[in-house]
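Review form for a predicted model. The reviewer records the input and the model, then writes brief findings.
Reviewer: anonymous (R2)
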Amino acid sequence: MTARSTRRTTAARSRLAAVGSLAVAGALILTGCGDQTDKDNGSAQTNSAPLFDKLPKKIQDAGVIKAGTNAEYAPMEFQEGGKIVGVDPDIAEALGKKLGVEFQFTSGNFDGLITALNSGRYDVAMSSITDNKQRQEGLDDKGKKLGPGVDFVDYFVAGTAVYVQKGNPKKVNSIEDLCGQTAAVQRGTTYEKALQTQSKACTDDGKKKITIESFENDTEAQTRVKSGGAVAGVNDYPVAVDLARKADGGNAFEVVGEQVDAGPFGIAVSKDNKELTAALEAAVNAIIEDGTYKKILEKWGAETGAIDKAAINGGK
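Model under review:
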């Protein structure tokens, strides 16, 4: 979503600071295109893309931006026909045309993306990651320093949503109704944090806590809700809406209540790579201005997440 709503400690369509071991799956897609031309004898490259000159020389020379993602969050990023598709890959393709390079996506565990980015495996992480201060500063849930943090180029807005079995047998109408119930969620996301925060609010109000079942991937959480093992699941709003529309032909789930704690999704970039951050900000603004951005969101039914202008580290 998530944010994957890293929601994102707010959700949107939100997810938490990525830590832990990295298990990279072998899913790969090239998006974007440029007319980059190498001259003889390894001399400088020429490129007519409007923002090519803003990129770091290392990326100009490589001709690609390596992007880590977790391709399990339709419509934001998911696998179809052996390719990674969705809102984020389409936005990346449009950015690539402005920058004159290709985005090369690799899918791995969500909670390892930022760690992999800071280790140099990726140039960016783009996976519905909620931009928040915790991730910017590299902190865990308790404020302990885990790493250097990252910078974000914000390109979308989403919040946390609750989804239940079709027909809503337990009559859940909001996240507050989950007190004393079991809820399923993907581990390491901001909507896992949203459930933890709500569970504390339940006990502070004299009610029973929420039993939170956290899974390595969102598919497992969905299965738990579908089977009735969990009363509800929590996810990024656009992901939950897409799930309700498509799972079992629209007969498996429904979204209840409104999205809450809306916040920005950002492209994560190493704090040591300010030049790339600035180039991406310029590219996001360029596709907003020329209308490409709007068309991409309309294609995937994600218009509610549109922004008017890119921002750097706009999350709270």
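Findings: The longest strand covers residues 253-270.
Further findings: Residues 1-44 have pLDDT under 50 and may be disordered.
Recommendation: see findings above.
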